[in-house]
Design goal:
The protein has 113 residues and is α+β, with helices and mostly antiparallel strands. It has a single domain, classed as SUI1-like domain (Translation Initiation Factor Eif1). 26% of the residues lie in helices and 26% in strands. The longest helix is centred in the middle third of the chain and has 12 residues. The protein starts with 15 loop residues before the first helix and ends with a strand. About 7% of the residues have low confidence.
């Protein structure tokens, strides 16, 4: 019987690698840029998911100057701080964030029609 190779199943987790990749702190966190329809032709652009160590008010000030629109920083209980801008500024905001070096292009998700 010593010639028989008996394999005893060990505790193998097939999802261990996938879980380890997801646990990377901030490695694949996205910045979400959305547009919301207000009334008629009016719309609102929201930016969420920026890192907390950035000054939201300074980013907002530069965005408002660059795109000639008004905006505000809103504190949301679930999402944290969210930047709101008047008008459909999705492409402008994404190009601004990449050119300023705040976010890489592949970490930006643009939502909306």
């Amino acid at each position: 019987m010593s010639e028989l190779d008996i394999q005893i199943p060990s505790a193998f987790d097939p999802f261990a690698e996938a879980n380890a990749e997801d646990s990377g702190a901030g490695s694949k966190e996205y910045v979400h840029i959305r547009v919301q329809q207000r009334n008629g032709r009016k719309s609102l652009t929201t930016v969420q998911g920026l890192k907390k160590d950035f000054s939201y008010n300074k980013i907002l000030k530069d965005l408002k100057k660059e795109f000639c629109c008004n905006g505000t920083v809103v504190q949301d209980p679930e999402l944290g701080q969210v930047i709101q801008l008047q008008g459909d500024q999705r492409k402008n905001v994404s190009s601004f964030l990449t050119q300023a070096g705040i976010v890489k292009k592949d970490h930006i998700k643009i939502h909306g029609f």
